[in-house]
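Preliminary data (for renewal application), adenosine-5'-diphosphate complex.
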Amino acid sequence: MFFNQTKRLKVKDIMSKDFIVFDSDISLRRCVEHIALNNLKEVIVRHHEKLTGYIKFDDIIKISLSQSFPEKKLFDIRANKPFYLNVEDTVLMAKDIMRENQVDRVFILDDEKLVGVLRTQDIVYKLYPKIQANEDLYELLWDNVHEGICIIDNKGTVCIWGRGSEKLYGIKKSEIIGKKLEEFFPTALLLDVLKSKEPVENIIHSPRKNTYVNISALPLIKNGKLIGVVSTERDVSEITNLSRELEFTKEKLDYLQVEVRKMNEDKFSFGNIVGKSKIMTHTIDRAYQVASTTSSVLISGESGTGKEVFARAIHQSSGREGAFVAINCSAIPESLFESEMFGYESGAFTGALSKGKIGKIEIANGGTLFLDEIGDMPLHMQAKLLRVLQERQLMRVGGDKSISLDVRVISATHRNLEDMVKAGTFREDLYYRLNVVNIKLPSLSDRIEDVPLFVKLFIEEFCRENHMKVPDISPEILNMLMNYSWPGNIRELKNMVEHLVVFSKNNEIQIDTLPEYINNKDDKTINIKNEKSLTDLIRKTEIKAIHDAMKECGNNKQQAAKLLDIPRSTLYYKIKFYDLNQYL
Ligand SMILES: Nc1ncnc2c1ncn2[C@@H]1O[C@H](COP(=O)(O)OP(=O)(O)O)[C@@H](O)[C@H]1O
Ligand SMILES: [Mg+2]
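Predicted structure:
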């Protein structure tokens, strides 16, 4: 047996077979001769075929020294009462019988037949080596388990210190065994268990700074008495430190998320979308209404008309907890599209970062995914996107788990998707899925009455950011700006305002800093190419005339009406009609 359990050791395993049985009528002389010759320890006496007792070698020798010795027979000597055990009985039982009866040997029977003797010496010479071998085995065991093992006795003295513990704490067995554990670890959990006698399991404990162990400690109870405590422990410092760092990072992230949300609330709310024109107020109303639903929204409009501004405002007022994540479909190389959108698992493909990467769609989970310039999405990606949107499930590239999605999709394009569908460059099914609600943003030239508002806003914004004093702008310049067609829409206007402010002099925006194409334009010439219809042209002309007149007359409506040669009520009506609310 590889592992001897001494408790289960049987008498037959260590008994001696060098015994002799003599009939009781044998002469003592012959008996002594025999014993001496065969180096025997005792003689077993048989009387009428029955074992009646035994006589120890020492006793026989003593008697052989007396005078009457030559005539004596074996039955003349008082024999000791033998104790019998069966071959299958344990050594432990033999030991108990010997102790209880104060004898130094027991006789072993097999099926009523004497087969051996178990003497104290057998126990000493045969059992103890086995115990020693077991001890060596135990040592091998606690030196080779990955965990650190420590056993203390009921006085708190270290009895066992495994190699795992040596490694964990850098303390050698020779330094600690036999010493009080408290001297090394004043706060050791084992000492608590020694007091409480209660087991503790899987506790994260820090016996030293920056060292964390997962420890279990059990009281060792024998016959109802505490004899010591055993502990096993595993180093979890790295994991614990990492998870602590993760917790910190998460806390920081939560904090930043709240901050970003607050910032966005201010910056990207509908309240901050500039526009008093009828068409704009109508568009803002529509967007506001759809914001709180989960419907997909497609925002169309020329470049620079505020598509992203609207998308953010919709997300902001949707109350969705998650993030607003924008993907510019025209800016991602086709080969990176999939990994950028879906993310990938570590080792998903050559060249992939070994740690894997989370995709934009997954980041937007719980929030809003903004697919900007959706018209530029490659066809094969359109198919993959459609599948994800339909199934509401996402699988990372190279992954095998699907992640369930709750994403609100807002897309934007300056292209005509319907034409693209007809031409076969945009999937029709995806088009319908994205275009549940359509918001069309007007070009700036379609709401020229908003130009002064934007100019004012951008001047103030730019000056605030650059710690400048807000310069004045003459009605003349404002007029020119309103007359221009702004093909780059609000973005172009914003850049232009920045340019004008930068080159302002004496706290005033200078007319000669206007570029030729704006400055040169004669107020009265109309560039028909820029106009959409006669109604549009009339609208613009009327708005411009009202602005001019109001400026000229210092915002006095009565004088302005006179100047324009129209009744005052007509002027009121037109101001209201064109949403020139700043004059009301
Ligand atoms: N209604 C608005 N109010 C204030 N700023 C706006 C508005 N619309 C657009 N802008 C500004 O104009 C620029 C272009 O807007 P953006 O949303 O990026 O346009 P698009 O996505 O349609 O090209 C941005 O600097 C944005 O802040
Ligand atoms: Mg954009």
